[in-house]
Specification:
alpha+beta; 3-stranded antiparallel sheet; about 15% strand
């Protein structure tokens, strides 16, 4: 499991929705009470079956989503 810190529940859900509806990538948003408040995150579950091209697509999609939400990028740093 690879977590990507977002730190805000509505933003975390919005980013998850954007990845699904705009890029066809399902990523679970993990919010309170599963994690403490202000530690909301996206949970990625890569497997050996995710080829390098899929990894590249994910990186491009995630970059696109973070560029749409500059506040998320600052919070994740």
């Amino acid at each position: 499991i690879v977590p990507v810190l977002v730190g805000e529940p509505r933003l975390c859900k919005a980013m998850s929705d954007d990845l699904l509806f705009e890029h066809g990538i399902y990523v679970q948003p993990i919010n309170y009470p599963t994690v403490p408040r202000e530690t909301e995150r996206l949970r990625f579950c890569p497997t050996p079956f995710h080829a390098e091209t899929k990894q590249d697509s994910l990186i491009m999609a995630l970059t696109s989503v973070f560029e749409k939400t500059p506040a998320a990028l600052a919070d994740a740093a």
